[in-house]
Write a structure and sequence with these properties.
This protein has 103 residues and is mainly alpha-helical. It is built from four helices and no strands.
Length: 103
């Protein structure tokens, strides 16, 4: 594994480790283990759809934040270096806001 690939994997792993449990709880799922970046994006999408269907404004807003996060996470799959770190930082901001909005 190259250093660039290792960095890509480790960066996604950090985001996944930080948010998987909270996202799974939002949709009443068990927290995933050994999640790939693509599986994590799928988890975010499931939470986004669940919240987007809610009748409360704050939950719909959380769903919109997750939609933004999915965009940045998906982009980050193909980026490297500083561009990837920037995309993941933006995704983290939206993930954090979405989770805080639901509390």
């Amino acid at each position: 594994m190259t250093t660039e690939t290792q960095s890509h994997t480790d960066t996604f792993a950090a985001v996944t480790d930080c948010f998987s449990t909270d996202l799974a709880a939002l949709i009443s799922e068990e927290p995933p283990t050994d999640v790939t970046p693509t599986e994590f994006i799928s988890l975010v999408e499931r939470a986004m759809h669940a919240l987007g269907c809610a009748n409360r404004d704050h939950l719909q807003r959380a769903g919109e934040e997750l939609d933004y996060a999915v965009g940045y996470l998906t982009e980050a799959l193909t980026l490297t270096g500083a561009d990837q770190r920037d995309g993941l930082a933006r995704a983290r901001t939206h993930l954090r806001y979405a989770i805080e909005t639901t509390r």
